Fold this sequence. Notes:
elongated; 425 residues; mainly beta; Jelly Rolls; single chain; Beta-galactosidase, Chain A, domain 5
Amino acid sequence: xxxxxxxxxxxxxxxxxxxxxxxxxxxxxxxxxxxxxxxxxxxxxxxxxxxxxxxxxxxxxxxxxxxxxxxxxxxxxxxxxxxxxxxxxxxxxxxxxxxxxxxxxxxxxxxxxxxxxxxxxxxxxxxxxxxxxxxxxxxxxxxxxxxxxxxxxxxxxxxxxxxxxxxxxxxxxxxxxxxxxxxxxxxxxxxxxxxxxxxxxxxxxxxxxxxxxxxxxxxxxxxxxxxxxxxxxxxxxxxxxxxxxxxxxxxxxxxxxxxxxxxxxxxxxxxxxxxxxxxxxxxxxxxxxxxxxxxxxxxxxxxxxxxxxxxxxxxxxxxxxxxxxxxxxxxxxxxxxxxxxxxxxxxxxxxxxxxxxxxxxxxxxxxxxxxxxxxxxxxxxxxxxxxxxxxxxxxxxxxxxxxxxxxxxxxxxxxxxxxxxxxxx
Length: 425
């Protein structure tokens, strides 16, 4: 048995293809893209290999593909990228003394509407320096149907029960400036049997509005899956809600923990393994706008302001040669949120390199499963800082140790002991 300090020093062990760990704790300019084939679901994130408008402008109203909101414009989002990709559609409106709609066509399409068809997109209104502060919120995506009618003239409403019209979106005061807002409209409820001919972008800001701009991304027109009514209620819990936050702007400061009711410990992925802001949905994304996990962690954090205590971390790795890097940022693994499951009873993610990690909790423990994609398979054991110790028992594929990690507000926190056993197959 050998002893290794925790903190930025890790103990690594070569494992087989899949390992299960049980841990127990005690106390730009774009060419016009091809129009999708008839009835092929429309989808674009305005990337170079996707549908993008070549030119969309009208008097005092235009849109173009750019890198995304600037650093000065974002509160919690990654700067200079879209919501999911590296580009977004920037809309701009000139000042106007008169009320009235301004409309541009983004795409010409041919897509039938079924009872399950939904329109969805994310929008990032930027608060203008002058004039009414919410002018950039008076924007909405509209649809032109084959019978000449428009979505905005129907009774369609989004998930907030706000009418799917630009004026209604702005006057509802539901959207947030300088943040990505997700919108979903049930088109099938009002237009089943019709065919969408064009996708438009409309502004209907109040008279006297100064010039404004914002961003649009992840525009989708597709049928939604039918919800499985047989699923247990806890499968609908989304533990990432409130995680798109930071120390300057709170949207909950939550993290996607797995835990049992009144359990002793939380287990969570962390995008910043040395911070009390354990998991940030987007802000720390890489150059491809993919979030990165630095560790899977035991946590007792009540809030980022109080800090964490009694922690422990483990991270899968597959270095081509030698041990994984000690630097957390270098060994962090990127992924996309589409490849992530975040529930109270299960967290699972498939990284871009093919490694799959999963966690499920018990009252004083957790089961972690790592499935590796190649011949190299490693685990790194770490902690928030050097206040602890790990003993690695290589012959028995197990570790044991303790953690004295505690923030300055962790009054009464005592030493935490842990033990881990691994199985491989």
